[in-house]
Amino acid sequence: MSADLADLRAEVAAAARRLAAEGLLIGTAGNVSARDPETGLIAITATGVVLGDCTPDQVSVVDRSGALVTGDLEPTSELDLHLAVITTYGAGAVVHTHAPNATAIACVREDLPVLHYQQLALGGTVRVAPYATFGTAELAAHVVAALQDRSGALMANHGAVTHGSTLTKAVENALLLEWCCRLFRHAAALGTPRELDEQQQLAVIEAAIARDYGTPRPARAEEGS
Ligand SMILES: [Zn+2]
Fold it and tell me: At what angle do helices 79-89 and 137-146 cross, to 10 degrees?
């Protein structure tokens, strides 16, 4: 095994531990994958692993067909879901969680509307993919469809999926989606949430492009406002 793939397995394990520490991965529920840009091989958490304690040897390596290349453990039962997202959208990494706020929203709503402009980093209104049994090709197809032009989707009565060009980005998107779901829950508990309309969303995107929002810049005191 190349040193790079060992690094990738370590990075996937570290991402799993971080998402568990943030409360998004609970026990053995959820999974993380990342694609090696050079070989196209995919490092993915194994099934039955306690993600908060995930070690590099609990991350298996598979090829694009899902065949095991490296590792002693069977990959997650949602392997097909990860492969489908990576293949369809060219994702560099995929995160699937049963995060509490995302899952709650996915048990009630058909989508997650945009209440806060930060959600636009996920592409806008987040769709809820129809329910299907875990680990099935049907579920993978539903999620792939829900991710059209989005970097996150909810899964009805199940959880959430995010992807990104890198593992860091996919993890950030998972944290952001959970934050947006928590915001919706809090807002809805207080009253009827006000949504950002199309015009307001467009203005945010234009402002973000103009200001290169989210990128650190030297000599500017004001950030993230
Ligand atoms: Zn799941």
Answer: 40
